[in-house]
Structures are given as structure tokens and as C-alpha cells.
Structure prediction request, 150 residues.
Amino acid sequence: MDDTKLNEIINKHQGEASSLIQILLEIQREHRWLPKEVLEKVSQRLDVPLSRIQHIVTFYKAFSLVPKGRHEVHICMGTACHVRGAPRLLDTVQDMIGIKPGETDMDLKFSLETVNCLGCCALGPVMEVDGKYHGKISPAEIEGVLKNYE
Prediction:
């Protein structure tokens, strides 16, 4: 991430340390992960100890300290989705893109995560890709959905 964009994000929040989490979320949205050198710059600009920033980014699952794929795939494993076939859905996605939950493929195309609930239980099982929900999806439909994210 270039310094210009980083400074733009920090300046948008008037360099307030109280906006740390929002600043980190915006950096992550822009860059798809939080490199150590960026965290060091945020620490300096906001006058917040790097150890505090490290604690925050390792506590919240929303943050990543490793590069993420261009497309984030989330499989709901909540009770409603689980009983409607989410484990088979997850197995199919893993086989198709070749990674396990918490991983990113080698060409940084996909990252895969499981979540406890996406909040749309009536649509289970649910797969979410880049914020778009695919409900009542069957393993046979996954390939067609993922092709849209080439």
C-alpha cells in the first residue's frame, strides 16, 4: 500500500487513535490484508504502540496478517445450514479451489473461511462470496457460482 493512500485513510479520521479499528478496516478493505510495515506506519501516525495494534488485529477475525484472495468465500456452518448440508458444500468448495478454511490459494484468487452464522438461516445452506449470498445452494451448483468470480 502506498503512503498516499494510507495517509488519505488516516487523515479522513483526523489521525485520531480512537478511530484505530475503523482505520485498520479501511486499510484491509483497500489492500485485502495488513502488512507489518503498514501497521508500523499506523502506529507512528496515531501514536499507538505497535503491540496494541498487534493485539487488536490478532483478536478480531476480520483482520488478516497474510495476503487474502481477490474473492472471499464464506461457508455458513451454523446449525440450520449444517443440518441442510453445509459440510458437503464445504467439501465441494475445498475440492474445487484446492484450499481449506483459513487458507488462500497460490494465485491469490480465493480465500476460504467458515462462519458460525450469516444471519439468513431460512436460506440454508448458504455460501457467501464477496458479500453476495447464495442460499439453498447445492454442491452441484457451486462450480457455476465460482466461475462468475474468475
